[in-house]
Amino acid sequence: MKTINLQHELKKYFGFGVFKGQQEKIIQTLLSGKDVFVLMPTGGGKSLCYQLPALISEGTAIVVSPLIALMKNQVDAVNGLSSEDGVAHVLNSSLNRQQVKKVFDDLKSGKTKLLYVAPESLIKEEYTEFLKSVKISFFAIDEAHCISEWGHDFRPEYRNLKSIIENISKVPIIALTATATPKVQDDIQKTLGMNDAVVFKASFNRANLFYEVRPKVNIEKEIIKFINQNKGKSGIIYCLSRKKVEDFTQLLQINGINALPYHAGLDQKTRVTNQDKFLMEECDVIVATIAFGMGIDKPDVRFVIHYDIPKSLESYYQETGRAGRDGGEGHCIVFYDPKDIDKLEKFLAQKSVSEREIGLQLLNEVVSYAETSMSRRQYLLHYFGEEFDPINGDGANMDDNSLNPPTLINASNDLKIILEVIEKLEQKFRIKDLINILCAKESPITKSHKLETHRLWGIGKDKDDNYWKTIIRQATVQGFLLKDIETYGILKLTEKGLKFLNNEIEAEFLIAEDRKFDLSQVKSDIENSQQQVVGMDDVLFSQLKELRKKVAKRLGIPPYTVFMDPSLEDMVIQYPISIEEISKIHGVGEGKAKKFGKDFADFIKKYVEDNEIERTQDMVIKQVANKSSHKVFIIQSTDRKIDFEDIAKAKNITMDELLKEMESIVYQGTKLNIDYYINDNIDEDIIEEFMDFMHESDSDSMKVLLDNFGDELSDEEIRMLRIKFISDVAN
To answer: What is the per-residue pLDDT for 633?
Structure first.
C-alpha cells in the first residue's frame, strides 16, 4: 500500500493544519483494512474520521445514518469540499426514480466517494444488487448506538446490518457513536461482528460544561429570567412534547425573546428555515423536541435547558453536548419533578416486557443523576465507564453540587451492612428489592423468596429508603458494587467490595446524603420568601401619582388615561427601569409603554439607585392569553364597522366579555375605532356631555360614572363611551 500524507490531504480537503485528538490514528487504522470502533463525544470530529479516508480511497464508502436531515447536511458539506458535484450522494426514500438513476450513474462512473444510506434502503433488493457491482472502500455506521436495545435511540432495522453488509462486500467497518455505556459498546461490536475491531475511546469529559439540576417550580419564570440574564447568547430548550414546544415558544416570544420552534410535526420548509435562522444567528433560542440537534454543528451554543427530564443519561449527554463546542462556556440546566418520572413510567407500561425493563433502568439512572449530591460530572462519566477525580479532575468544580458541597458523613458501617446482605442473599436482587429487605417492606419478590424469615430482614429499618439508595448509588460509583445490566440491574460485589467487607482494605466510605425533591416544600418556601419581599412601596406610589399628573398636564389629558392605578401598584412592586420592562407591567401594552413609559422608567431607575433598592430582576412574565386571537379579530372587525353583537357572536362570547376585551385593548395603548356603533346607538348630546365630564374628571371608575350618568345610560353604554374616550384621548 502506498504511503499517503494524511496531513497534506487534511489541508487539501478540509483546510485544517492538524488533526484533532485521535483522528489521524483512526484513519490510519481504517486505511490499513482493520475494523474500527470509535467512541467520541459530540463535537469531537467523528465525521471527519470516515469522510477523509473515503475521499482518498479507491471506490465508494457507504455511510449508514439514521436521519434523512442529517444525511442531507453532510452531503452538502462534502460536496462543498470538491469542485465536482456528485462526490457525495444520498440514497433514501425521499428520492424519485430519476434521482435514483443519477445516483447509480455517478456510482458506476466512480465519481461518488461517499454514499449516505438509511438502513431501510439497504434492505431493498434492487439497491443491494446494484451495490454488489460497485467497488466499496468501507462501511461507516454512524450513530452506532442505534444498534443496541440499551442505546437511547434503538432502531430494530439496524440489527440486520451485519448480514446486509456481508452480502454486499467484505470490507472494513468503522462504527461511530457519541454516547455508549460499556454495555452498549459490547452490544454494537457483537451485533456487527466486530470483535477484533480496534477501539478508540476519547474522554467523555467536557470540562467547559456546567451541569445543574433545578426543582421544576416556577419553571417558565426561571427560564425567562435565565435567558434575560444571558441576552444575545444562543441556546436550545428541549421539551418532550410538540405541544409544549409550540406553547413555550409563544410564551418566550411575547416576553420579547427571539425564539423559534422545531419539531417533527412542522413541515420540512419551516423546520429548515428555523434551523437556518438559528445557525445564521437570526434567532437566539430554539425550543425543540429531541428531533433537533443531531448533526447540528453550531459551535457557540451557550446553554442547553431541559424543560422536561430526559428519558436516559445517554440522550441527556448527547443533547447537553451541543453546548460550548468551541471550548467556551456551556450551561446545562435540567428541571426535575418526580411527577414527570411517573408520567414516563406510565408511558413505558404500554411497551413489551423487555423494552419496559430496559426503559425503566435507563430512567432510574436519570433519577439517580438528578437526586445525587455527589459530583454530577463524576456520576455522568462513571455511567460511560470513565473514572473521574471530583477534586482535581478537569472541570471538577463545574456543577451545582461541587460548588455547594454537602457535608460528608462516614457510612462505612452501613456500607458493610449492604455488602453483607448482597453476599448472604447470593447476589440475586436489584436496588428496589434490597431496600425492601433492609427496611422490612413486604413485596411480591420478598414473599416469593420467603425473605421475611431471614435473619437480615429489616436490619436497616432505622434509616429511610433515600439513605440506603444514596449508599448504593455512591458505592457503585466508588467501585464497591457493580450493577449487572444484562440482568436488568442486579447488584453484585466487586473485588474491592469483597475486600472491604472482609476488612482486607482500610478505607473510609464517605457519602453525602442525596437531595430530597419535595417540590411542595420548595414551592411554599418560594411563596413565603416572595410574600416577605412583595410589599407596596407607598413612598414611590405617591411619587408616581404626582409624576402621572405632571405627564397628563403636559399632554392635556386626564391622569387616569396615562396609567391606571393597578398599573402604578404593579410598578412599585416590580421597579421597572426600561420601556421594555414597563411594557410587562399589568395593564400596559407596548403602545402605551412607548408613549408614556420613558418618564416613568427614568424616574424609577433614579429612585432605585438613590435608595439602593435590590430589584427582584424576575419581572412578571406575560402570559399567552387564551383569547389572544380575539384582539386582532376585534380590531379588524371594528375597522370594518361590524356590529358589536355580530363580533361577540362570531367569537362565541357575551357582550360583557367583548367589552372587557375592548377595555384591555385600549388601556394597553391600542386605538379602537367604535364611533360608528356609538353614534348609531347613543344620543349625540349625551356623548358630548360624557366626553366633557371625562376630560374634567380625576377618575374613570364605574362608580363615579354611574353616579353621574346612570339615569340616562346603561352600564354597557357607559363602558362603551369610556372605551371611546380612552381610545381617542390617550392612544
So the answer is: 86
Q: What element of type H or E holds 671?
A: none
Separation of alpha carbons 317 and 310, rounded Å? 10
Express each pLDDT in 53-81 by its tens digit: 999 999 999 999 876 666 767 777 777 77
Which helix (DSSP H) or strand (DSSP E) does residue 382 occupy? Answer: helix 376-383
Q: Would you state the pLDDT for residue 525? A: 53
How far is residue 731's CA from residue 728's CA, in Å, rounded to a whole number? 6
354 — phi, psi (to 5°)? Answer: -65, -40
Q: Kindly report the three-state secondary structure assignment for every residue of 440-460.
A: CCCCHHHHHCCHHHCCCCCCC
In angstroms, the Cα distances linking 342 to 336, 355, 447, 515 are: 12, 17, 25, 18
Question: Rounded distance, CA 590 to CA 43, Å?
Answer: 42
Which residues make Cβ contacts (< 8 Å) with residue 142, sequence separation at least 6? Answer: 46, 47, 50, 63, 64, 65, 66, 70, 176
Residues 6+ apart with CB under 8 A from 303: 226, 230, 233, 235, 236, 323, 330, 331, 332, 333
Backbone angles phi, psi at 570, to 5 degrees: -70, -35
Confidence grade of residue 516 (pLDDT, cut at 50, 70, 90): low
Q: pLDDT tens across 310-347, in order?
A: 988 988 998 998 899 888 899 999 999 878 887 888 77
Amino acid code (one letter) for 394: D
Measure the CA–CA gap between 338 and 363, rounded to whole angstroms.
Answer: 11
CA-CA distances (angstroms) from residue 459 to 455, 469, 511, 608?
8, 15, 20, 60
Please state the pTM of the whole predicted model.
0.66
Residues 6+ apart with CB under 8 A from 50: 30, 61, 63, 114, 138, 140, 142, 174, 176
Q: How far apart, in whole angstroms, are the C-alpha atoms of residue 326 and residue 74?
A: 20
Q: Hey, is 266 helix, strand or coil?
A: coil
Q: Which domains does the chain have, with CATH numbers?
A: 6-201 (3.40.50.300), 209-403 (3.40.50.300), 408-512 (1.10.10.10), 534-610 (1.10.150.80), 628-730 (1.10.10.1390)
**What does the alpha-carbon distance between residue 407 and residue 401 come to, in Å, rounded to a whole number?**
11
Cα(632)–Cα(52) distance, rounded to whole angstroms?
Answer: 55
Looking at residue 307, the DSSP 8-state letter turns out to be S
Hey, what's the cell of 117? 444510506
Cell of 368: 439517580
